Amino acid sequence: MADAELRVGTWGFGPHPWVSVERTRGFYARSCAPDIALVDLDAGPLAEDVDAILSFASARWHREPRPGDTPIVLAMHGGPVVEHALLRELLPKLRTSDTLLVNCRSDRAIVEGLCEQPPHVQVLPLPVDTDCFVPFERAPCRAEFGLDPDAVVLGFVARLVPQKNLHGFLRVVAELRRRLAPRPVQALVIGNFSASYPVLDYGCRAYPDYIQELRRRLELGDALRYFAARLSDDQLAAAYSAMDFLVHPSMAIDENFGYAPIEAMACGTPVVASAYGGIKDSVIHGETGVLLSTWASEGGIRMNLSAAVEAIVALVDEPARHEALSVAAFDHVHANYAEARCAGVLRATLEQAARRRGGEALRTRPSSVRVADDSLPPTDPPYAAFAEAIGHYVSHPRPRLRPASLVRRAAPTRRDDAGELRLDDPAWPAAVRLDPEDLELLERCARPVAASELAPPGTAAWTRLQRYLDRGLLIPAEYEQP
């Protein structure tokens, strides 16, 4: 089938209110022009004379009768995690001959895990503007943002909601200021606060006040530069060029791609990020940056941010290695995330999808994952509803305790009004009620301590320690990297 002959109908391809989805829609439109004709089916009959239907942001694929034998290409965006429970019910509306577009390998694993015989699943990388996002001279970029030319500059670019983990970033900055003194360490934060989050919102509305208080407690003072997310792409490229590292410790459950790490690497800035979801695909550990191991506890996603501190300290002391990461990051993005390459993947996927007919209705498997998440505040849906999908997004299984293990508390703790011990972590504010003996044991874990010093292996106390790891109250102080 020649490109010029291809007609693809579209459902839900109008302007979208979410910035990231609208950005993706523009990429789709540019990729198809002029060889693939996009036919708007929203206002017309169920299907015209089209070779395939692209369902971009529409529920018609599962709400209405199927349009004959016409193959469907479903753009999933962040759906495999956020709509995981619903997908188990709705995917049987599709056929094995249909195609699902996902943005990371973790999403592909979710779909393949849901289906007895999966449809065609294509991982589609999204592009960045590799003409705009390029390295600029550092000194003028730092001057533009009021940064010290000799400082170690850490950047954070994201929505300022708890799951993006600005609070964790600030704690990394504070520890690096202590470790690298007297050399100055500064932070450049770019983003907007939000009053809500679509899933597992444990405190978006209170987050700005929390961050202000944390900044005061950590005595960051004038070490922090903040800019709202109103920068042009050219200004954002200058911001990335001003950084020594972009730190992206996201724990957002639907982190299926992540533009900021890729834009930073395009500017030659190494990335230190959580090994989670789409970031596992875009950042190459030890080559373009550093990935921080993640795992799913009963009380939420966990990672060891002290590994970020150690990695940055080591790279500050090895400028040649930092430069090698910078060069590799630039090369990686400009080779793999340029629009021409990503557009080629999309066009080839649509062409191949249009050739497929027939197929069987998808059959989904029942879930085998059970999580007791009573330590987290109630939400609708609860954390347990996403646990199976999150298991594909994290990089490691839940850690098992060994005698040589060093463990520490997952976050600072406080007693709440109900007398429960609560982690001071707005993203995952797990709380438990413990007896005095257990409280004393957790107090000893304020700093890394060998598990064998806390309890003999094989005893009831040892079992309780493992339970604390399972619930996410404790984390390994050292955990293997991805």
Automatic annotation (TrEMBL):
Occurrences of domain Glycosyl transferase family (ranges): 142-292
Family annotation (Pfam families): Glycos_transf_1 (PF00534)
UniProt entry keywords in alphabetical sequence: Glycosyltransferase, Transferase
EC numbers for this chain: 2.4.1.250
Record protein name field: D-inositol 3-phosphate glycosyltransferase
Gene: mshA_1
Region of interest: Disordered: 357-376
Molecular-function GO term, any one: D-inositol-3-phosphate glycosyltransferase activity
